[in-house]
Amino acid sequence: MSSALVLLAHGARDPEWRAPFDAMRREVAQRLPDARVELAFLELMEPRLEAALTCLAEEGVTRITLAPLLLAPGGHLKQDLPARLEGFFRRFPHVLLRVTPALGEVQELQGAIAEWVCAQYCRP
Fold first, then answer.
1. Which residues, including other chains, have CB under 8 Å from residue 45's CB and lie 6 or more apart?
2. Residue 76: which of 121, 43, 118, 37 has the closest Cα?
3. Tell me: the pLDDT tens digits for 98-121?
4. Which one of 1, 3, 10, 19 is the catalytic residue?
5. Which residues of the chain fall short of a pLDDT of 50?
């Protein structure tokens, strides 16, 4: 079974906005040298989510983990994402796709963010 990890970001008009996400993709790929790691966007940037998933499925990937790099489970994760995935699942029913929680829902990340914020507050 071929697998891939797709990091999903929102997207923006400013091309510089994507730099931290490209860096995250590189870091994850370095930590998972045997994994296929891709970056996709909901809007305004390429590759769009649907195109990235389709490309993977057409290349024979049968298991995808989708990690939304969004802080909270707002409208994009509650409404937009399921609507966008509906067509993908119809076209590629054999592909298993798992979506991770939003970043802000992960207790370890909440603690890391709180620690960083506190450190910033305590700086002279």
1. 9, 11, 12, 18
2. 43
3. 999 999 999 999 999 999 999 999
4. 10
5. none
Q: CATH topology for 2-122?
A: Rossmann fold (3.40.50)
Give the start-to-end residue ranges of the domains of the chain: 2-122
Residue 82: other Cβ atoms inside 10 A: 11
- C-alpha distances (whole Å) from 16 to each of 22, 51, 52 are 10, 22, 21
Which residues is 15 bridged to in the sheet? none
d(CA 71, CA 97): 20
The model's pTM: 0.91
Q: Is 10 a catalytic residue?
A: yes
In this structure, what token pair is assigned to residue 76? 């994009």
SS3 per-residue string spanning 11-39:
CCCCHHHHHHHHHHHHHHHHHCCCCEEEE
